[in-house]
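User: Hey, quick favor. My workstation is busy. Could you predict this chain's structure for me?
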Amino acid sequence: MSDWSQFWNWFYLIFLITAIPVALMIILEKRSPFKTAAWILVLILIPIFGMIFYLVFGQEYRKRKMFSRRGIKSLKAMRRLSAEQLKNIEQNKLISLAGLHHQATIIRLLLNNSDSLLTTGNKLHLLVDGQQTFDRIIEAIEKARHHIHMEYYIFADDKIGNRIKDILIKKRKEGVEVRIIVDDVGSWGLTRKFFRELQANDIEIYPFMEVRFPRFTSRVNYRNHRKIIVIDGKTGFIGGINIADRYIEGMKGLGHWRDTHLQIGGDAATTLQVIFAADWYFITKQNLYGYRYFPPLSDAPGVPVQISASGPDYSWKSIEQGFFAAITTARKRIHIVTPYLMPPPELKTALKTAALSQVDVRIIIPEKSDASLSRWCSFSYVEELLEAGVRIYFYQKGFIHSKYLLVDDSIASVGTSNFDFRSFETNFEANAFIYQKEFTSELEQHFLSDLQHCREVRYREWRKRPLFDKVRESLAHIISPMF
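Assistant: No problem, here it is.
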């Protein structure tokens, strides 16, 4: 037998030993048929490397629970309150008092799938660019009296990052507690010097799920994409803006960076604190509890808000389900702004069904993107959405990174989640669901303003795009779910 024949015999043997067991693992995970087929195709085309690639990037951890939530004291109290709210909703008390009959379905859903308390004593400020957002954040930090809690995907060692770092050091010297969580992948650029300077000033800062061999395989694909701040348990921030100069100065090759953030004053900030406390417990095993961190909730009048979190640690895809419930209740309009348009099959069907039912469905996405693979994958969804009557607009004035949803005059969502399967299925995310006509009207004005800087994509025009673009889109469509 020739050496070449021996090589192929060994190759096929290794293929049988590696690819088949891994393929069975993928099938037994019962993920979407599209993802299952994509991974099995990779195993067939590149058997040995495909297996390694799957073990690094592809394992599904949602059903295995990446960490236990037992022992988190703030969660126990929140679950008790959410059970009481559900009981009141069933008796129609809470809904009637707040005048939220139209939103009752989504409120019940978020209480059940993520213990998302409905709070009414809130004041909201919509922030529509980086400079305005950082000005508000710095102003709020300067007023802190007891604690400052920050959780970010990207915390950059640049001008705005160092400015905020210096203010945090000053506040710590005044006796204010400062705790920071940064995602280990998103904030790879942070130097040891940056960490040490904060730690030397008694500021607690930790990376979320460090990516280091040999623990690399279970952690690289599940990132903390949250961007939240809680100050004294009463003031909160949530949205799309990380701490980096690009949100003020733009980015080379992309230009102006358009984004949306939300400042919350009131009880919703307290519920936002629960998300931070759970992540802090996961990293440090320290419990944050007590009235200094969790001021008593009130029934004061204000903007009704639910803060919903989702991630591999939750049993349900909470934010995706919230979006689905909102979209399927639409009667007049659905307006979405997202930097990446890669909806799971259920949300894609919901959008197409709404458009075919003559609901005004409009989506703004960037024409230029900071991620080529995501750009081409986003474009791969455009044709079938256009065909169903969804109106799609390409943002022209730089890069739009905003993440918000508007449904009719009664439901809005602003947060960290993109309208893509990665945000809905694998990232740790958080979104505010807001139920007030005045707020949705304000957000709608910003949507119309963004629309002025867009060009609408027409179905006939889009179908005539070059064949090479169609091939790139199709390849990105297949590959993207594996990252």
